[in-house]
Amino acid sequence: MALIYFAGQDVGLTTVVLADAGTPATGAVVVTLTVTDPAGTVSTPATAPTGGGGYAAVVPSVSVPGVWLYRWTATGAGIVGGWAAEGQFQVRLLGVEQLVDLPSVKSHLNMPASSTANDDELAGFVLAAGELARDVCGPFLPEQHTEYHDGGRGAIVPDWLPVASVQSITEYYGLSAFPLTEQPLGSQMNAFAYTVDYRTGAIVRRTFGGQAALFAVGSKNVKIVYTVGRAGQVPYSVRLGVLELIRHLWQLTQQGGRPRFGGGAMDGGEVHVPSGFALPDRVVELWAPYRRPPGIA
After folding, report:
1. CATH number of 4-92
2. Which residues pair with 42 in a beta bridge?
3. Where residue 1 falls among pLDDT bands split at 50, 70, 90?
4. Residue 177 in contact with residue 263, Cβ under 8 Å?
5. Which of 60, 146, 174, 208, by CA, is between 20 and 30 Å from 39?
């Protein structure tokens, strides 16, 4: 059984039903599998005996990303009080940011390309390292966000950087909505305008003649829909930092007590970053040119 599945995959589940005596139940037994997806939808895939008290079932074409729960139950010969077992599996989101590929990770860890024993587990490390890189540096693959900000100020910086494009900005005065349009300086069309500094992400409210103005006064009354990311471009220093982070995490969790790659002195100390996790100094330094500014939530 894999650790993480892609949407659309079939998930095969197996179990061994035990009788009250603790031995495999081989008599007349009724086995039921109940599966609950992350949205709360319950299904009961058909089960089939595999011999020696074993049973198998297939959850077809899993589609909802997240944690799926399943529960085996059995009644019958030798099972007076009933038998049950529970477990879970994960389905990953489509388009999840994955900054390095599995072959590159195995090469970085000096694992033989032909060895697949650790592939499922390494895939989880790849996803985790990508999330940390996204938190520290911002998204690399394009993604759209919708946010509500307080008005009454001249400039707003979205929560995520770098800003690739702004789809819409709407000011709300009570029940009235006023759409703003991006109007670069020198091409002003009306008083409902804004400009974007794509280097810093600052969105500045503009009025006639390109003059700076204030967004409508209010609390969470400015709606911004924007796209953030670097069009999938992953700088080499970021990529190397991701590989080093995977090496670090793999070493701590899988090789506890063994000497570190390159010696402990080369790993350096640890510093705290916005994600709340500890990252090796070498990773922070590799990501430094692309880190999000302090204070970005």
Report:
1. 2.60.40.10
2. 36
3. low
4. no
5. 146
Q: Are 59 and 11 in contact (CB under 8 A)?
A: yes
Q: Which residue matches tokens 């880190």?
A: 291
Give the model's pLDDT for residue 186: 86
How sure is the predictor about 96, in pLDDT bands with cuts at 50, 70 and 90? Answer: low
Task: Report the percent of the chain where pLDDT is more than 90.
Answer: 56
Joined tokens for residue 191? 């008083």
- Written in H, E and C, the secondary structure of the chain is CCCEEECCCCEEEEEECECCCCCECCCCEEEEEEEECCCCCEECCCEEEEECCEEEEEECCCCCCEEEEEEEEEEECCEEEEEEEEEEEEEECCCCCCCCCHHHHHHHCCCCCCCCCCHHHHHHHHHHHHHHHHHHHCCCCCEEEEEEECCCCCEECCCCCCEEEEEEEEEEECCEEEEEEECCCCCCCCCCEEEEECCCCEEEEECHHHCECCCCCCCCCEEEEEEECCCCCCCHHHHHHHHHHHHHHHHHHHCCCCCCCCCHHHHCCEEECCCCCEEEHHHHHHHHHHCCCCCCC
* Per-residue confidence (pLDDT) for residue 270, from 0 to 100: 45
What pLDDT score was predicted for residue 251? 85
pTM, two decimals, is 0.65
pLDDT of 18 above 70:
yes
Q: Are 83 and 73 in contact (CB under 8 A)?
A: yes
27: left (phi over 0), alpha (psi -120 to 50) or beta: beta
Could you identify the residue written with the tokens 């979205």? 158
Q: Which residue has the tokens 């009644």?
A: 75
> Where in the chain do CATH 2.60.40.10 domains reside?
4-92
Reply yes or no on whether the pLDDT at 273 is more than 80.
no
Closest CA to 201 of 291, 67, 293: 293
Whether residue 238 contacts residue 133, with contact meaning beta carbons closer than 8 Å, is answered with yes
